[in-house]
Write a structure and sequence with these properties.
The structure is a single chain. By secondary structure, the protein is an alpha/beta fold. 44% of the residues lie in helices and 17% in strands. A five-stranded mixed sheet has the order 2-1-3-4-5. Helix 6 crosses helix 7. The relative contact order is 0.17.
Amino acid sequence: MSVDPFLKAALDEARQGYAEGGIPIGSVLVKAGRIIGRGHNRRVQQGDPMAHAEIDCLRAAGRIGSYAGAVLYSTLMPCYLCSGAVVQFGIRKVYAGESKTFAGGAEFMRGQGVEVVDWADEECVALMRRFIAEKPELWNEDIGR
C-alpha cells in the first residue's frame, strides 16, 4: 500500500475508473496541503478522447486563479497532453506513481522547469499491468498506438 496520502487519493480515483470499465489512471491536485481537485481517466465512460485523469482533475479543481504552489499527483506519468497542461498552467511539481508501463512526458516537463518525481510505486505498476493484460486494445487506443 502506498504511504503518501495524496498518491493514495489518486489510486482511489484510478480504482474508481477501473470499476467503471475505464482506464485506471487517477490524479489529484494539491494546494496548501489539501486536495482541491480530483479525477480519473473517463475516456471510455464519456466517449471523450480528451478526458484524461489529469485533465479531469484540473476541470474538477475549476478556476483557481494561480497554480503557484499547486502539486499534481498522478498514478501514471502524465502523457504529453497532460504534461502540456502542467506546463501551460505553471504547475511546478508533479509526483507520478510510476513510469514503468508508460514513460509519458517526464523529460518534456523537466525541460520546462517542472520538478518530476517518479515513485515507481509497485501498486500503481500492478494496477496498470493488470489493465494492460486485460484490455490491450483499449490501452493502445489510449496511448495512440
